[in-house]
Q: What sequence folds into this?
């Protein structure tokens, strides 16, 4: 089984690429973290978790999942995928679980609140480069190789995580940051994809109902009308993995 958490598609893309090589089934982790399905790992089953890196740590939903995970399988690997470097996201995971292998890979940065989203051409180049790295990772997973294969930690990775991740843990995405413009056509997508059910459509428009969310940027990035924004995101554009079918 390959589980993934995603806001803008990169983790799903990576999970599916790995599955093409290993033959494992893929599944969005929200089935367990949001939709109350019970996670049962078959005896001797291989488990792979693909997670984006947030604030040099991991999304709150992934953390919640790891806190309750009892690995009963023969092999458990975590693939951390990021925009630039993973920091010590691995160390955050290892507070809760002992994976047999950890991989780190640079995908495409989706963090439009802070960075300009790259052009379609640049994105395609990055995804081509990512494909090569995933092929190596998938091979190691198929052979169930054990160890720390994360070469994307970056400099001062422990310090970066120690400084930045607690801010995310405390504040996450604050509801007051998001707003929807009159371009909203009440399609309901943002409400249905939010991994923490933080959005409700009221009077034909999304309302952010929780003080804190996972900040996956799925609502903002995947809205078909680009109606959702937060501070600064308007000028930076939006990213959705162009090769993924949701
Ligand atoms: C809230 C948030 C925080 C992020 N923090 C980091 C970070 O600390 N380091 C990094 O390299 N990328 C960071 N990113 C970029 C994502 O890890 C990266 O774009 C990833 O591929 C997104 O995966 P997804 O498309 O599956 O959602 C962040 C993205 C978000 C939304
Ligand atoms: S996804 Fe966009 S268009 Fe659809 S309901 Fe949400 S804000 Fe409106
Ligand atoms: S409100 Fe938007 S950014 Fe926050 S978790 Fe939900 S979909 Fe992601």
A:
């Amino acid at each position: 089984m390959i589980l993934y958490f995603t806001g803008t598609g990169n983790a799903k893309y990576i999970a599916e690429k790995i599955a093409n090589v290993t033959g494992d089934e893929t599944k969005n982790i929200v089935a367990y973290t949001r939709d109350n399905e019970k996670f049962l790992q078959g005896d001797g089953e291989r488990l792979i978790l693909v997670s984006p890196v947030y604030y040099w740590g991991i999304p709150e939903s992934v953390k919640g999942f790891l806190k309750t995970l009892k690995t009963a399988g023969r092999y458990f690997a975590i693939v951390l995928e990021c925009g630039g470097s993973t920091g010590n996201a691995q160390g955050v995971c290892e507070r809760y679980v002992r994976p047999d292998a950890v991989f780190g890979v640079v995908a495409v940065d989706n963090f439009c609140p802070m960075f300009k989203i790259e052009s379609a051409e640049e994105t395609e180049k990055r995804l081509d480069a990512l494909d090569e790295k995933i092929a190596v990772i998938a091979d190691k997973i198929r052979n169930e190789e054990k160890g720390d294969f994360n070469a994307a930690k970056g400099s001062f990775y422990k310090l970066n995580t120690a400084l930045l991740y607690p801010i995310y843990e405390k504040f996450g995405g604050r509801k007051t940051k998001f707003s929807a413009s009159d371009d909203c056509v009440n399609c309901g997508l943002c409400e249905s994809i939010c991994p923490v059910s933080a959005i409700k459509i009221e009077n034909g428009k999304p309302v952010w109902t929780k003080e804190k969310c996972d900040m996956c940027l799925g609502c903002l990035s995947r809205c078909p009308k680009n109606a959702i924004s937060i501070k600064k995101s308007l000028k930076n554009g939006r990213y959705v993995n162009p090769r993924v079918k949701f």
Notes: Residues 120-142 form the longest helix (23 residues). Residues 34 and 92 are 21 Å apart (CA to CA). The chain has nine helices and twelve strands. The pocket of iron/sulfur cluster (ligand 2) is lined by residues 180, 184-190, 201, 206, 223-225, 227-228 (CB under 6 Å).
